[in-house]
Fold this protein.
Amino acid sequence: MKLSEHLRQNADCMDAYEAGRPIEFFDTLLSRWMPEDRNPANWGVTTLHRPKPEPKTRPWSKPDDVPGPVCWIRETNGVKETYLIVCLYGSHQIAITTVLGHAVLRFEDLNNYEYSTDRKTWHNCEVTEE
């Protein structure tokens, strides 16, 4: 990497740092990226920095993606009834019950839903991949 590219990347990291995003530096002794805790004024000119990459996520696609034996799902806008997942059928459908009766949804139908295991904290129906 040219020095000018290296300095430009570190300048972009300084902007990300100022915006509150986590920063990493490449530790040449360990040959891996490490969290950067120091203020940019203390960064070495030759040390390579980058904003910490965002984790990759994907929508639920199989029963193993659903957290716990029971969790609650609701439409993302929170307007519709809250549902309790009670059992799973294969890799393409989820059986859920509502106060009004029984409904079956496929994983593909959960794009506009969010889930909770405590009915207080809600998350998108996604899995974080390593």
The mean pLDDT is 79. The CA atoms of residues 21 and 51 lie 7 Å apart. The longest helix spans residues 3-18. The first strand starts at residue 23 and ends at 27.
